[in-house]
Amino acid sequence: MLDGTEATLDSLRGRRGLLLLFARTSCPFSVAEMPNMKGLADACRDIEVGAAIVNQFEAADAIRSTYEEKAPGARVVCDESGEISRLYGVDAVPYFVVLDGKGRVAQHRSFTLPAASNAVRAMLGLEARRSRFAPAQGG
After folding, report:
1. What's the pLDDT tens digit per position in 128-138?
2. pTM recorded for the entire structure
3. Residue 69's CATH number
């Protein structure tokens, strides 16, 4: 973890599942999404789904200030070797993986806040939230 403690999937998982959010501070898209990742992680914990940001291929000392600024208080797992990313087939960031309560992959894909939020909702058997924007009509 970014705070120097060790973490396991069991220690991160909530009663109903786990959301892993993959990012890198060297990726401008990841940095732009960090506040959204933090907000979604907080919301997940409120519904008994654990959540953590998994930072790939960067040392804790090099990334600490970015997370303190963009996602203060977020649970950040340091995946310096890329072992966790390889385990879930993550080859680009930002990305998310939703694990159900038994640790099975329920959904995974490139991160957008609506996609990740709806993936968690689907895993819990809840209806997806609709976008507030109507799709454009082609003509």
Report:
1. 666 554 444 54
2. 0.89
3. 3.40.30.10
